[in-house]
Design goal:
mainly beta, 6-stranded antiparallel beta sheet
Length: about 200
C-alpha cells in the first residue's frame, strides 16, 4: 500500500523470490516514488540484465542519479529460490541473502525518502515468482532472520505489520497481519502453484 513506509522509524522487509529471467533492472521491490524529477526509493533489483543483485537507494536530481548502492557478494541463478531481507532505520540500510549479510548503505534510510506513493512488489518487467512476504516495524537481527525464514507465520507475531502469502483466492493481495494493509495485483501478476516452492513450513 502507498504512504506507509515513510511513517516507520525502522523496518525489515523480507521474502522468498526467484527470477525466471534477468530483465533490465527488474526488481524484487521498490518503496518510494517511481516518477518525478526528485524521486527517491529503496529497492532490490538485478544489475542491468545480469544475475547480480543490488540494494539501491535511488535518488535523482533532474536526470542525474545521486543515490547509493550495495551490490551482492555472489551471483544468483535463474529459477533458484532465494530469501532476501532488507533492514532500514531512519538513516541506514542493510540487506541479506539467505540470511547472509550482503552489504550496508550507511548514509541513506527511511528519512531520506521524500514520499512513498508507489510502493511496489515486482518492478520494471520482473519475470519471476515470490512467496511469504513480510514487513516488520523493527530492524531484525541476522539471527532472527535466519530463525524464521523457513517458518510459516500466522500473522500474529510481535512487530509483524505485514504478511502477504497469496493464500486467499478471493483476495490475493490480502495482508494476514492485524494491520490489514492489503495490496492488489496489477499488470500480468497472478497467483500460481509452483513446482519448486520455497520451504516455509516444510
Amino acid at each position: 500500500p502507498p504512504n506507509f513506509i515513510t511513517n516507520l522509524s525502522e523496518f525489515t522487509f523480507e521474502g522468498w523470490v526467484t527470477w525466471n529471467a534477468f530483465n533490465e533492472w527488474s526488481g524484487f521491490f521498490a518503496f518510494g516514488q517511481s516518477s518525478g524529477l526528485e524521486r527517491t526509493r529503496i529497492g532490490v533489483l538485478n544489475v542491468s540484465g545480469n544475475n547480480l543483485l543490488r540494494l539501491t537507494f535511488d535518488e535523482y536530481r533532474g536526470s542525474e542519479w545521486v543515490g547509493r548502492l550495495a551490490d551482492a557478494t555472489n551471483e544468483v541463478h535463474a529459477r533458484e529460490w532465494i530469501h532476501l531481507a532488507v533492514t532500514a532505520t531512519r538513516s541506514n540500510l542493510s540487506w541479506y541473502m539467505n540470511g547472509t549479510p550482503m552489504g550496508t548503505i550507511s548514509d541513506r534510510g527511511i528519512a531520506s525518502l521524500k514520499s512513498d506513493p508507489d510502493n511496489q512488489i515486482g518492478t520494471a518487467g520482473f519475470d519471476g515468482q515470490m512467496s511469504e512476504l513480510r514487513l516488520w516495524n523493527k530492524v531484525r537481527a541476522q539471527a532472527e532472520i535466519q530463525a524464521s525464514m523457513l517458518q510459516k507465520l500466522s500473522g500474529q507475531e510481535t512487530n509483524l505489520i505485514g504478511l502477504w502469502n497469496f493464500s486467499d483466492p478471493a483476495n490475493p493481495g490480502r495482508d494476514f497481519s492485524p494491520g490489514q494493509h492489503d495490496g492488489r495485483l496489477v499488470g500480468q501478476a497472478k497467483v500460481v502453484t509452483t513446482a519448486s516452492p520455497p520451504p516455509p513450513g516444510g
